[in-house]
Amino acid sequence: MRDQTGGFGSKAYASEELVAEMTAAFVCATLSISPTVRHADYIGNWIDVLRGDNRAIFHAASKASRAADLLLGFRAPPPASTEHEAPDGQEA
């Protein structure tokens, strides 16, 4: 269950943002998208969370992995190849 009690700058908010950014990184890596990080304001809060809990990164990564799997589950399946198509996509 998500803790949505904190506002910007709170530990709860920073933890949620850390999970969200890690999810974005996992999804981008899977889809071969070069991500851009533009959330410098959050980094200080993430550091506070990570310093305060030596397992926070593992909890965040676990939640982010589950979230990325959920999002990636909505991808369209790859097109099926025909028997007459060579492995490189050219007609045989």
From TrEMBL:
Cite a single GO MF annotation: nucleotidyltransferase activity
Start and end residues of each Polyvalent protein metallopeptidase domain = 2-63
Enzyme class, UniProt record, top EC level: transferase
Write the Enzyme Commission number(s) for this entry. Answer: 2.7.7.-
Task: Name the keywords, alphabetized.
Answer: Nucleotidyltransferase, Transferase
Cite the Pfam families for this sequence. Answer: MPTase-PolyVal
Query: Matching InterPro entries, A to Z?
Result: MPTase-PolyVal
Name of protein:
DNA primase TraC
Q: Which organism is it from?
A: Bradyrhizobium ivorense
The record's gene field reads traC_3
